[in-house]
Amino acid sequence: MIKYALIFAIIVGGILLWRAIRPGASSTDLSRLPGMEEFKKKWENDNPEGPALSEEDINEWKAALDGLALPAAILTPDPSLPVEAGGNRLGGPAYLPAGEAWPKAANGLPAIFLAQIDFTQLPDLPDFPRRGILQLFVASDDLSGMNIDDPTAPDIIALYHRGGLEDAVQQGPYIEPEGEGTSPLMDKAVTEGVALTPTLAMLGVSSSSWQGDEALDGLGRREGFNKLEDHLYDEKRGLPAAHHVGGHPEFVQSDLRFDGNKDFDRVLLRLTSDKYLQWGDVGEANFLIRRDDLVARQFDRLLFTWDCS
Question: How confident is the model at residue 175 (pLDDT cuts 50, 70, 90)?
């Protein structure tokens, strides 16, 4: 239903523009707006009339939706903890194997060290490694390496150190020239780093995701549909504003996997906005990976996206 909401928002914007151009036009005369009849017919075809949804139907639907929940490690910032070679954290210096240079992005500039995942310190998560450290770097540009045209080809670097970082050498932190700051990290996270403490949780499907949208497909004209919507959008079952590994992604605008890329079905890392990290206007960022690539430890094929209001 999210895709219909987006289309409807565009149409409403068209109505407002139409009224501005034609002051006598009524905001309720939707049928006269170009494309509205086609939109209505498509929605009705996709949502045929049918019997009212019984309580059993509704409960089965809720159980199916809630059954999509996945285990996750919530990562809570704790600036009181020391920043070391290992551990989960945001920013700071990067510990790299001796002789390995600081990564550069495709634009030729040193990449921004965004976050580190220490799998040995995470609770056991299905399909995820139980050892090794993953470091994520993003390009120093206005989009932090996101590729709007193809989110599966971002300008990011993922370094997986299967054996850990016992003999690594501290490098950085890389600090951008004054006046050229594009890093989403706040000052302390850039210069010192902020440790992240993991906690196991079960995270359900977000109302912004394609799974939540498809769960409502075809039911829009059935009596009782509002109960399904209420459950999907219930804040009690929504995703928390938190960083996490595993679980499901969160989007501010909409799930960009609607038009493909649904196979990027695992959250390698979600980074929300907080006092240590800001994505535009309080946005959300997701590093997504295909389950098969995750199992194979192929971290060089990621989908990276962030959006804000």
Answer: confident
